[in-house]
Design goal:
By secondary structure, the chain is an alpha/beta fold. The protein has an eight-stranded mixed sheet, with helices on both faces. The protein contains 13 helices and eight strands. It folds into two domains: 158 residues, Rossmann fold (3-Layer(aba) Sandwich); 92 residues, ProC C-terminal domain-like (ProC C-terminal domain-like fold, Orthogonal Bundle). The protein is elongated and about 70 Å long. Helix content is 55%, strand content 14%.
Length: 269
Amino acid sequence: MHKRTIGIIGGGNMGEALIKGLHKNNRVLVCEANAARVKYLAKNYDVTVGELSLTVDEADVVIFAVKPQDIDDVVLNMRRGGITLPVQKRHKLYISIAAGLTTLFFEKNLGERIPIVRSMPNMPALIGEGITGVCPGRFASLSELKLAQEIIGVLGETIVVKESMMDALTAVSGSGPAYVFLFVEKWMAAAKKLGFKELEAKQLVYKTLLGSAHLLEKSEFDASTLRAKVTSKGGTTQAAIDVFVKGKFDPLMRDALAAAKNRSEELAK
């Protein structure tokens, strides 16, 4: 069976997560500027690490996995190398995981009618447990969107949204792991304040977190119902919940997500 050729521009953490999930069943080309990183990727994965021109020219699917602040240099080098002309003439799929960059940005810089799919993964994608929002550009067909989902699917689950919702998705799931880590960080600190040692607090908090997440995923009940089931009136859990309510946890969460969404809009190109 003919292997699909996938070019990945950027071999950082998220680029490596893609490589890890794709290199066994596809021919993977990687363009990475950091020499030490190039050596590492070539040693650990069945990939071809080469120049930008090779990565773009030979690939059936090109993935932009560089940081948003580096994308201008990539586009500039593509222009200098004369790559943008064949990009416009040859039909191949482009996928971006660079936060904040719109499909219109790529259409303007690489050719108006290129099929581009924008995606926003989150940190658990590094272990194949992510959730990635995807939205198609104006010229990406349904089959190309499905192909993008299949490819990005190596990072975890995908959800298709309108591009107008990408900033909100960034606030909810893209930045979401940090909210969980912050909560765990403070939960751990509070546990130690009650007298538990570091390893004890870690065992109690981590297992409670993971068990509760799995229960939520597998249960027929939603989060609100499960929370009510564990909260007896006048009991210990109710005492804790009352403190969260008094501290305005609900509006605090809304304000936090709104701030993340607004910042995402400010950073978008």
